[in-house]
Amino acid sequence: MDLGLQNKIALVTGAGSQIGFGKSTALTLAREGCDVVVIDKDRAGAEQTAAEIKKLKRKVITAGVDVTNKAEVNAIVEKVLGEFGKIDILVNIAGATTPPKMFIDKTEEEWDRDLDLNLKGTLYCIKAVLPQMLSRKSGKIITIASINVIKGFPTTSIYAAAKSGISGFTRVLANEVAALGINVNCIAPGLVLTNFMAGGGPPAASIR
């Protein structure tokens, strides 16, 4: 298919997992003609994804980036803008959850991990990329919420809070920047067999 993405520059976070939305999204964008920036805390995984993008004859930048680290996020965005001059598309996929526990048993450190990675990491990436989109009056931003926002799977309370925050934030940001040429959308995936699920995502037994 032709989605009109030839020669666009796309930055995809969380694209290092070899069974996940990030890699699939990065490869799909490359097949549609985008040059792709692949970032993940797992640098080796990001390199694996990048190798497949190169086979599609697209340019690729790879970096080991922890999206909870604002300095690292700002540095990779600066590098990309220096090389490509723009970022047309940002897809915020990096995310994870602490081991499932009832809310009463979750520690504040676990709260911070779920909120920082899923919510604050998304905000850092958007904050870094948005100014150059606004200056060009062009850009697409995609955030990832979760079916958990609707279903409320037990033992995932703080993860659900983070994803609910992403959903609400996306609605507001979309209204703020729509008239300025920026398109912002949120996707709320259901349960899919990815490395995230294998690592302790919402329990399949909670589907209802």
- Order of helix and strand elements from N to C terminus: EHEHEHEHEHHEH
Mean pLDDT: 91
General form: globular
**Total number of helical segments?**
7
How much helicity do the residues have? 40-55%
Our estimate of the beta-strand percent is 15-25%
The largest β sheet comes out as: 6 strands, parallel
Radius of gyration: 17 Å
Q: Helix- and strand-based class?
A: alpha/beta
| Biggest sheet, spatial arrangement of strands | 3-2-1-4-5-6
First-last Cα distance: 34 Å
Number of strand segments: 6
Low-pLDDT windows of residues = 196-208
Can you tag this structure with a few keywords?
six-stranded parallel beta sheet, alpha/beta
What do these coordinates show?
The chain is α/β, with parallel strands linked by helices. The protein is 47% helix and 15% strand. The protein has 7 helices and 6 strands, in the order βαβαβαβαβααβα. It has helices spanning 21-31, 43-55, 70-84, 108-136, 148-151, 157-177, 195-198, and strands spanning 9-13, 35-40, 60-64, 89-92, 139-144, 182-187. The longest helix is centred in the middle third of the chain and has 29 residues, at 108-136. It starts with 8 loop residues before the first strand and ends in a 10-residue tail after the last helix.
